[in-house]
TrEMBL record:
Hydrogencarbonate binds at Q142, T143, G144. Belongs to the enoyl-CoA hydratase/isomerase family. MenB subfamily. This is 1,4-dihydroxy-2-naphthoyl-CoA synthase. Residues 253-273 are annotated as: Disordered. Transmembrane segments: none annotated. One of its GO terms (biological process) is menaquinone biosynthetic process. PANTHER family: 1,4-DIHYDROXY-2-NAPHTHOYL-COA SYNTHASE, PEROXISOMAL, NUCLEOSIDE-DIPHOSPHATE-SUGAR EPIMERASE. The gene is menB. Substrate binds at residues 34, 73-77, 85, 117-121, 143, 149, 246, 261. It is an enzyme of class 4 (lyase).
Length: 273
């Protein structure tokens, strides 16, 4: 069994943010509400993911929920106002959409580690993670049409790409809950393991990923997302290519020539087939 000592990175109210060497773990921490998220929970996750994105020593991120009963039960219905979820500033918003986008563009693998309920907007968070490892007590489902809401973005379109249109419509039209084994059979998640082993197996996968080329992983993630995310996805893939180009002599020649007020000499660079 693989285990690590987690060290707290920063204090938050509604999440726990820890790391062990190159692995970061972000935990939604409202177990008494089955880890339902409020605007504060989401704001804090965005902050923690941004720290992970900017820290070049972090290579992989785990997203999970506190306790064994839930990954997340979605948006906290107790703070749902008329135009979104109402935060401490009394503004109604759906900032979870910004978090979904951040998880998609962060150029490092994000693994959802799911124990218990993965429901509504919480289930969409596990969906947008790159990989999902579930405990055998996990249950997956969308409740939107039952509670007067829907996610017509990744929660519908990307779900249809992942599990197929017929299955995605079944999930949204009937609002059934699916066991971890059923979700695995639907290609909704990557692996099912006994509850007691879920963190150990997740850490094993993180360590295997950390042995791989981070740039190769970055481009694979961006390329797969570009296929689904249109120009926004191509922007990420293009930005990654620019990052590499900046590091070449050819890229540096353009910058240096401008700064040195001379004509750039690009002729010496090969025109590969
Ligand atoms: C998760 C369920 C199935 C767990 O059942 P269980 O184990 O029997 O526990 P309960 O006794 O029901 O729950 C324990 C306590 O936790 C509270 N609670 C649970 N979920 C929530 C929640 N989502 N919000 C607030 N409180 C919650 C219970 O009330 C209970 O409290 P006490 O002890 O005081 O009674 C079951 O709890 C369940 O079905 N929960 C509701 C699931 C749900 O409908 N979630 C909301 C779905 N919608 C979203 O997530 C929308 C957000 C979103 O992401 C979005 C994104 C983009 C565009 C649109 C949307 C959108 O849809 O708005």
């Amino acid at each position: 069994m693989t285990s690590v000592n987690w060290e707290k990175v920063k204090d938050y109210e509604e999440i726990i943010f820890e790391r062990s060497d190159k692995i970061a773990k972000i935990t939604m921490n409202r177990p008494e509400r089955r880890n339902a998220f409020t605007p504060t929970t989401v704001e804090e996750m965005i902050d923690a993911f941004t720290i992970c994105r900017d820290d070049s020593t972090i290579g992989v991120i785990i997203l999970t929920g506190a306790g064994d009963l839930a990954f997340s039960s979605g948006g906290d219905q107790g703070v749902r106002g008329n135009g979104g979820y109402v935060g401490k500033d009394k503004v109604a918003r759906l900032n979870v959409l910004d978090l979904q986008h951040l998880i998609r563009i962060i150029p490092k693998p994000v693994i959802a580690m799911v124990k218990g309920w993965s429901v509504g907007g919480g289930n969409i968070l596990q969906l947008v993670c790159d990989l999902t490892i579930a405990a055998d007590n996990a249950k997956f489902g969308q409740t939107g049409p039952k509670v007067g809401s829907f996610d017509a973005g990744y929660g519908s379109g990307y779900l249809a790409r992942v599990i197929g249109h017929k299955r995605a419509k079944e999930v949204w039209f009937l609002n059934h809950f699916y066991s971890a084994e059923e979700a695995y059979q639907m290609n909704w998640i990557n692996k099912v393991v006994p509850l007691a082993d879920v963190e150990s197996v997740t850490l094993d996968w993180c360590n295997e990923i950390l042995e791989k080329s981070p740039t190769a992983l970055r481009f694979i993630k961006a390329a797969m997302n570009a296929d689904t995310d249109g120009l926004a996805g191509i922007q990420q893939l293009g930005g990654d290519a620019t990052m590499l180009f900046y590091q070449t002599d050819e890229g540096k020649e353009g910058r240096d020539a401008f700064n040195e007020k001379r004509k750039p000499d690009f002729d010496k660079y090969p025109k590969f087939p």
